[in-house]
Amino acid sequence: MEAVLDARRKVNLFCNAFGFAAGMLKGSLAGGRTENMNYNNISDSAKIGNNVKFGQFITVGDNVKIGDNCIIESYSYIGYSNGRERSGLSIGKNAHIRSHSVVYLGSSIGENLVTGHHSIIRENCIVGDGFQLGSSSILMGELVIGNYVKTGSKVEIGQFSKLGNYVWIFINSSLLTDKYPPSMDIIGPTINDFAIVGAHCVVFPGVTVGKDCLLGSGCFLTKDLGDLTIAVGNPFRELGSVKKIKLEDGITSAYPWRYRYQNGYPIEIASSWLAEVEKIEDT
Amino acid sequence: MEAVLDARRKVNLFCNAFGFAAGMLKGSLAGGRTENMNYNNISDSAKIGNNVKFGQFITVGDNVKIGDNCIIESYSYIGYSNGRERSGLSIGKNAHIRSHSVVYLGSSIGENLVTGHHSIIRENCIVGDGFQLGSSSILMGELVIGNYVKTGSKVEIGQFSKLGNYVWIFINSSLLTDKYPPSMDIIGPTINDFAIVGAHCVVFPGVTVGKDCLLGSGCFLTKDLGDLTIAVGNPFRELGSVKKIKLEDGITSAYPWRYRYQNGYPIEIASSWLAEVEKIEDT
Amino acid sequence: MEAVLDARRKVNLFCNAFGFAAGMLKGSLAGGRTENMNYNNISDSAKIGNNVKFGQFITVGDNVKIGDNCIIESYSYIGYSNGRERSGLSIGKNAHIRSHSVVYLGSSIGENLVTGHHSIIRENCIVGDGFQLGSSSILMGELVIGNYVKTGSKVEIGQFSKLGNYVWIFINSSLLTDKYPPSMDIIGPTINDFAIVGAHCVVFPGVTVGKDCLLGSGCFLTKDLGDLTIAVGNPFRELGSVKKIKLEDGITSAYPWRYRYQNGYPIEIASSWLAEVEKIEDT
To answer: Is the four-CA dihedral C236, C242, C244, C248 of positive or negative sign?
Structure first.
């Protein structure tokens, strides 16, 4: 639940975010210019939750709703309008938006968002809980992302892409949308649950990546990939089941990754994955 | 024609750019600090056209000329000097420079420029009308770009590159300049009219891409390419004429693209392309 | 040696950095708001050397030490904390940090640092003298970089990477760290002295690139490479000794590059390289 408080007052309350010394704040306060000592321009009509911390030089526009306990870092522009938004912007609780980022109006973002610096989230995205977007990465708008999706830096996810839950997209990878560039016929890829898109990959427009797939670094995927499949290279080739990939002990399957890696996921989700492992081992 | 007006006065006139509520502006005005309520630092000697809209936290240096009806968004630095500029900066009318961008002195940019966020245009570039530069993309300076060139995000166009008219460079592609890195022997690629450089491509130093060519995603082009040619892969290979590529109906040629796509181009240009189509169909 | 001066006073002293006209500064001074005319928030506890120039809209946090003659450009955040730093931030003399950059606490950076715009240096990096980091490039933290290393733009150097001296990493290349993504088993590549990593390359986790190696553009290096070796492609293949590559005269070896290129290196270093050439020619 988010209380609608006066944004300007809140800025004062939390002006000591990011570790500035009391001495510095006192300096800024000298002369009675309390109000703008952090040089923030936060719309009075923005709905700011409790315990939201703002950095400095921040812009928050109208029609923005920010949940409790969020951190909005310096030089960020929250609630940017390009005129194509179909609604305001809603950011769930506990978000942490790093500096120099831009979040457009029209998107609805779940709880526990984390972004890197210089990130962009464009209009009309529907994003689940626990989303992590790397530095200089871009959501191009009009796309749907499930829960606990994480990306590296410099990733671009094209319009109308559909990402399931627990997907990873690593550094410098792109999800394309235009089969015959330039055209008006835009279609995003679909990436299913638990799939891994390695670094420097390209997924072509309209292509579906199956559940639990692994795209090795530098894979240019031009066709659909069935569940649990490895793909590598440009042109890409399939290399069979992800289960073949063993950890350095030569015994443990590295994939599906959720059986060996639960770091940072909620305990109930991690437990369900561990229960799956036990079931597999029992059989 | 651009009238030379007092920059600071204009900032006041257009302080409500980007959809901030009147309520917010009133708040900022409280205390009589009208002058800097948007925290802009705009040089008094900059020549700002009529109806130019500024965001907030903007820097505009000396020797900058901004045409009528431009929009300069927040956190942008217009007129940056690295000491290598041979002139001031001139930005034609109707430009829209998105937030967190940097435009150096020394460049001359035509009308209707559009940039993404976090974009960089360096010194001594000559850029035609209708140029669109994607987010986090960089013009490295000392280069020439024709009319209606468009790029995706994270594109880098190296020094001394020459781009014709109606060229497209898609996401994450680079035009290189140094054959024997590191060296002082810098030579840019040449990209001729209507050519398409797909996503994640690399065009090597001094290489010429012919008119109407198509570089598929992930192409590393190390040699010149004749007009109307497809190239793909790393190492690259030629795949014949672009005319072979059909749209999903299996009949219509997808390339040259101008015969099927005129979106966003001026009506007189679009008409001339359509007239070409008719001529082809008549023969 | 850095004198500990009052940061705020220094901002006033150098407010005319970056070529703003006296007229503009006078305008900003009107109304007696001298103190914040550049809208900088610089911690009183930061240790700022002599003759440091600040742009505008700058944040400098606590526990930051900036050497003499540094330039910190606008919209930069120096001394950012993510809570993982093991110390303050130390930036040696003559650094030039371009606009919109972020430098975390915990890193120790030598003299003559140069960064591009939108660059990021994360926590606990040990960086030598003469480091140049391209625009939108990222040091991911917890890594070691020798002297005179230079990168292009959009480079990412992963955690725990080790770079020797005089290494070049060109545009859009990444040094990866996770063999079985996602995992907690992070290991960076090692790049030895004088090695060249071309544009759009990927060096895999834990891989060692030998001294004087050359990775051609688009190389995905998955295994160790001995000294003086060329590698290209994805999957990569070795192409023998770098000495085989001749300049356009067909006679002079292009590599090792230090025998033909000394631009920008200190005279005593350049001289030692030239002495090596003479020794080779004598034999």
So the answer is: positive
Residues of B in contact with C199 (CB under 8 A): 174, 176, 202
Q: Do A41 and B23 touch (CB under 8 A)?
A: no
Place of tokens 């890195």: B181
Residue type, B122: R
pLDDT grade, residue B27 (50/70/90)? very low
For residues B184 and C200, what is the distance between their CA atoms, to the nearest angstrom?
21
| The pLDDT of residue C280 | 79
Q: Is the pLDDT of residue B33 over 70?
A: no
pLDDT at A283: 66
Touching C (3+ Cβ pairs <8 A), the chains are A, B
The fraction of chain C above a pLDDT of 90, given in percent, is 84
Q: Kindly give, in sequence order, each residue whose CB lies less than 8 Å from that of residue B114, ignoring residues fewer than 6 positions away.
A: B95, B96, B98, B131, B132, B133
Suggest the residue from C40, C71, C194, C217 to mutate for an interface test with chain B (most B CBs closer than 10 A).
C217
CA atoms within 13 A on the CB side of B136: 33
Chain A residues lying within 8 Å of C138, measured CB to CB: 135-136, 153
Please report which residue ranges of B114-256 form alpha helices under DSSP H. none
Q: What is the distance between the alpha carbons of residues C281 and C283, in angstroms, rounded to a whole number?
A: 5
Q: Residue C44 in contact with residue A23, Cβ under 8 Å?
A: yes
CB atoms within 10 A of CB C91: 27
Structure tokens at C155: 């480079």
The position carrying tokens 């009107």 is C30
Q: Does the pLDDT at position B1 exceed 60?
A: no
Q: Report DSSP letters for A243-273, one per residue.
A: GG-B-TTSSSB--SGGGT--TTS-HHHHHHH
